[in-house]
Amino acid sequence: MIKVLIADNHPIVRLGIKQVLESSSDIEIIADVSTTTELFEALEKVTPDVVILEMDIPEINGIATLRKMKQEFPNVKTLMYSGQSEDVYALSTIRAGAYGYLSKNADLDYIVGAVKKVSEGNMFITNELAQRLAFDEGTQKPRRFFRKLSSREVEVLKLLASGKRNKEVAEGLNLNEKTVSTYKARLMKKLNVDNLVDLLQQAKALELY
Length: 209
Known about the structure:
Helices cover 51% and strands 13% of the residues.
């Protein structure tokens, strides 16, 4: 039996995932939570095989939550589940330690297959994403830049794009301001811009907000 914990702040989403997964005889939902505080409290009490983690779960962002889980609960496998752009975030979350990434736009059938694959220790991305990653490499689409960004750089860019100042970004990611400034300079270089306004426009073009 594959034990699953669902972490998403939308009750209707949790209910929907639960109903789809429970249609499979070899999957059991052992807990569902709506915040990162509840998630870590639950992980102290239960041991799921797979955590389905919403990218934008409240309190700590999904990638930071994922890193913390990898440190404190290294045997728990995580499947990221998000409405955010697959092209941008799938690789970032996998680099940060996720076993898979499932878009909320994907067919419901994918969820059961994804959970089973991740529970076995295998990587899961949709066929559509795999094809885009394979075929977009030679195009001039802006998203190709995200192949060059680390998961931490994506986190910094997302927070800057949401209107956070360097100090707030530093506090949110537990970094110092100087480190955030370094990341910002690196982002500008990688995204081929020379000011914050153009950087944020690039972030918007890349569907970061």
